[in-house]
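Input record (Table S2, row 170):
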Amino acid sequence: MKRLELVIHPDVLLRDRSQKVTDIDEELVSLTDAMIDTMHRARGIGLAGVQVGRLARLFVTHVDRDTPRVFINPSIVETSVDVGAYEEGCLSIPGVYADVNRPLAVKVQAWNEKGRPFTLDADGLLARVIQHELDHLNGVLFIDHIADSVRESVMADYDCDVDPATVSRR
Ligand code: NI
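Output record (nickel (II) ion complex):
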């Protein structure tokens, strides 16, 4: 299977808005297969297209006691009134974790890898991952949701090999 390279913050690609997927074809299915593999290898529970250099509106998830899931052109159509904090991390910001407030449940509509539309009511960790990954499709990172003082503190020791000045566009 094709090995995919992770895009790491502060690569500016992570700030771009992903484009709608128009064809769910063989190439796209092999991409989502490779994304699931990459997510598993990195011990992540969610991965968006942009994180492997593809500005396409899709992401994959695999939380505990669930199967791997593919979400293509997803949209959140309902969110719970109840909001809660939970510690999040991101494969594109390795080693950084912070509590993020989000709605505790969401209803999401998307297409799966077979090109079939589905609606899913999610709560718990899956609801959180769906919101985190959907943010990626709009160029938003979890660190954008936390207070400036907290961000400064959690990012103080962040070190990555990416020099933003030398990052090339994919
Ligand atoms: Ni992330």
